[in-house]
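Check these lines:
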Amino acid sequence: MGDELGFDEFYAASFRRLVGQLYAMTGSLADSEDAVQEAYARAWQRWDKVREYGAPEAWIRTVAYRIAVSAGRKAKNRLLAHGRHGEGRGFSPGLSPDHLALMSALRRISADQRRVIVLHYLVGLSVDEIADETASPAGTVKAWLSRGRKAMAPYVSEFADTAPGTLQTKTILRTEAGEE
């Protein structure tokens, strides 16, 4: 399908169908729309490759499903973590002082550093997985992680007081992602 049509035509022909399929898989229309839209954005960035796949719609569906599952898992884990700490009632997820400090610190570093910090600590990807996802050499990913931690150190004490890669360094980021 993607070989004969340009991206706009492909999008128009398949968007609603994919949202419907993902909605059936996830049970959330809003999350399905967001995930499918993000998958199309990713496909657009590499449309020359994606349109050559035998089934570009399957690629989009797979990417969208992974996005939705990841987002749902993080939200569920975050709510469970807040509930375990007695913050379940009347608490808005993401508005803790630690979270606000973390978000502020992330905004102060470069986009590349921010992306790899999030992928490594919040998503839990390895350096090699981040290198694959960002199409960057592993050494570059390591440099971005190191520089990002160093740049965040004045704003997030866990980065200032702990050697990179230790459990304490990861605690604030994983906790904010809803993991324990």
Remarks:
- Residues 87-91, 162-180 have pLDDT under 50 and may be disordered.
- The chain has ten helices and no strands.
- The CA atoms of residues 35 and 64 lie 5 Å apart.
